[in-house]
Write a structure and sequence with these properties.
284 residues, mainly alpha, 70% helix, 0% strand
């Protein structure tokens, strides 16, 4: 049995060489999944593993989403072909680095909903039938829109522009961070800016979302009026709580590597959200 094709070198058409040719085809597939183009003229020259080394690829054009999932399938296939006993496992760290925005949206939405349920069921000791699902909806919507999307925008994208050395500072060991004076000044500035955002954006936004769910009126203007009224009514206590909780927490959150910044923040935010749900979540 022979395979004849003008692009297949002589000596490769005999059936004993078919495994070598298939190995080269796999090489083509591994490069193609990344959206690359083959730059070598003859990818099938040589034999065995040498065929793989002769394949040279240009820079890929696929999106990071396609590369992540297709790359995982490629690794799993390679492990299976090699007879490896270990299988490819999903890595949260890899997912967080590849999809930081999606990771933050998922955590923020789930966290705020769970924190509200903890406040209702554990702190207030409500049964499952007594759960206020409208109240839980407030936290789901607020978590997705503000904590998931907007918070990522300003704490990652905007802060990167305002503080160019931020990423270099957070990637250092802790001992080096304590000696980095410009980095520490930027850390203090980020903390002060975030406390201002929490005071003048976070709190009024929460009260407007709450008014939008509980208010009988369908007018957004009424939601804003009701929300801002509650915001000013609780100003002193809320701002005091924001500074005593988020002042120290921000110093830690803004010091860890960027891909962990918001996930670490969500750990503190879970406790904060449970308190906010207990103190301000109900229709009162």
């Amino acid at each position: 049995f022979k395979l004849e094709h003008p692009r297949i070198p002589k000596g490769l058409g005999s059936w004993p060489r078919i495994p070598i040719m298939l190995q080269s085809v796999r090489c083509l597939q591994r490069g193609a999944f990344n959206g690359c183009r083959l730059s070598s003229r003859n990818p099938l020259q040589g034999a065995g593993r040498a065929a793989n080394s002769n394949c040279k690829w240009s820079v890929g054009t696929r999106s990071k989403y396609q590369q992540f999932f297709q790359g995982s399938r490629c690794k799993a296939t390679a492990a299976a072909e090699g007879g490896s006993a270990t299988t490819s496992t999903w890595s949260y760290v890899a997912f967080a680095k590849t999809f930081p925005f999606a990771n933050n949206m998922i955590i923020a939405t789930a966290k705020t909903s769970a924190a509200d349920l903890v406040a209702q069921c554990v702190i207030e000791r409500k049964s499952f039938k007594e759960i206020d699902w409208k109240r839980n909806l407030v936290f789901c919507m607020f978590g997705a829109v503000y904590l998931g999307a907007f918070q990522y925008l300003y704490q990652i994208s905007v802060f990167k522009r305002l503080f160019p050395g931020m990423e270099a500072f957070t990637s250092q060991p802790w001992a080096a961070k304590l000696k980095d004076v410009p980095g520490l000044i930027a850390l203090g500035a980020q903390t002060a800016l975030d406390l201002g955002m929490l005071t003048f954006v976070y709190l009024p936004t929460f009260y407007v979302f709450k008014a939008g769910v509980f208010c009988e009126s369908r007018s957004p203007v009424e939601w804003v009026k009701s929300g801002t009224s509650s915001y000013w009514k609780n100003w002193n206590k809320d701002v005091y709580d924001v500074f005593r909780v988020w002042g120290p927490a921000d110093l830690v959150c803004f010091s860890v590597p960027l891909y962990l910044r918001l996930p670490v923040r969500h750990v503190v935010s879970f406790v904060w959200t449970a308190y906010l749900s207990f103190a301000r979540g109900g229709n009162k």
